[in-house]
TrEMBL record, chains A, B:
SUPFAM superfamilies: HLH, helix-loop-helix DNA-binding domain (SSF47459)
Protein's name in the database: BHLH domain-containing protein
Main location: nucleus
Organism this protein belongs to: Mikania micrantha
GO cellular component term of the entry, any: nucleus
Length: 228, 228
DNA sequence: CTAGACACGTGATCC
DNA sequence: TGGATCACGTGTCTA
């Protein structure tokens, strides 16, 4: 029953080989036999043409159905109706999955940016919202006011950064520094009015200082311009 | 041509009403007429049954095709073959979209956790990876070793937290505190070996202390158990 | 008028 | 056996 598809995956084609004695590229040659079956030559020619056309139409439709079966997993039966039914169910499951994944994306984005949905419902109910809207809103760039990188000996680099403070600056700044895969010995972040003062002690060599400064600057810029 | 679907959306059904004179619930009554067409009663009865069965089969297949057309947007033509083709294209576009969104999700997760893909290609090429794998791996819980919340006057609350330090503890901790929508005056984070010492000055009232301590604890636990 | 699309009835096949 | 499925040829309608 259900192993039928595995045993004979080309069900219709096998039927073709059994029943369809005028398949393949032999249609034109067989038009003569159709003429022999109908002695009056006036009406026989369009009839055979219609037969060929209808044959091609059926073949195209079956090929389309076969292609549809190829892109849909979890095919239960090889029926035409079942294939269409499985395709419908699969599309609907893809719709649900897409909504769920987009909800997850929005949840993650709001966690990264706004942090407004912690005490809301456990599973974010705000489905069916375009993810582009969540991306294009609430980007809070980090404005670098001052950046000093100095070597203080003992394989230790001191980084001083003064920047603007917006809603999520602290988190984004931590992300920037974590993204650089540095060994952070001590971090001190102080917020005064709208300014943010950061002092880092990082394990590093003296010759890495200039590269490190460039790295931090570009990392902050990259983080402020998400390429999505 | 292309407005044909809007003018007559029930193309096949209208065809039914014109051509199919034995539709609806009248199949049984019409079996007599089929018997009249074939005088030999022995073979006529199974033939009429087969006719009815085939009619139902065709109707079911058309209904399925109609339902498929309903779940697929951007239908170009009303042809059977075109409907199946549009469904195939739509499923493949959904596949691509799903891969893209999952890549974005993985990218976001890796940004939040590992921070390994900053200097890679701008558009993450690591498609076709299950998102569940990205979720179930690399969860680094924050282990609370000590948590003190004390009131120091002047509408200022001092929070001291000692916890374990793993790869992404600092970022996650900042996320926790940002999620509470507190007014952070000063933050000091120091990492020594595998321990993380955090000192926060928060703007708050004395009577909010116990609630604040509970809030921080639960927030950390909630962040360590993402409900996805 | 021609070409394309559809439903119909029928015989064959499979389980 | 018989119910379900399929391909086929044909008539009909529309663009």
């Amino acid at each position: 029953m259900e192993n039928f598809a595995e045993i004979n995956p080309n069900y219709w084609e096998s039927i073709h080989q059994i029943q369809d004695y005028s398949w393949g590229g032999l249609e034109e040659t067989f038009s003569g036999s159709y003429d022999s079956s109908s002695p009056d030559g006036t009406q026989s020619v369009p009839t055979s043409k219609n037969i060929v056309s209808e044959r091609n139409r059926r073949k195209k439709l079956n090929d389309r159905l076969f292609a549809l079966r190829a892109v849909v997993p979890n095919i239960t039966k090889m029926n035409k109706a079942s294939i269409i039914k499985d395709a419908i169910d699969y599309i609907q499951s893809l719709h649900d999955q897409e909504s769920t994944i987009q909800a997850e994306l929005i949840e993650l984005q709001s966690q990264k940016l706004g942090f407004k949905s912690l005490d809301s419902s456990p599973m974010g109910k705000s489905k069916k919202k375009r993810v582009d809207e969540a991306f294009e809103s609430k980007v809070q760039p980090i404005e670098i006011l001052e950046l000093n990188v100095s070597y203080v000996g003992e394989k230790t680099v001191l980084v001083g950064l003064k920047c603007s403070k917006r809603k999520d600056t602290i988190v984004r700044l931590c992300e920037v520094f974590e993204s650089l895969n540095l060994i952070i010995l001590t971090a001190n972040i102080s917020a005064v009015s709208e300014r943010l003062f950061t002092t880092l002690f990082i394990q590093g060599e003296e010759e890495e200082m200039d590269a490190l400064k460039m790295k931090i600057e570009t990392a902050i810029k990259v983080f402020d311009n998400p390429q999505i």
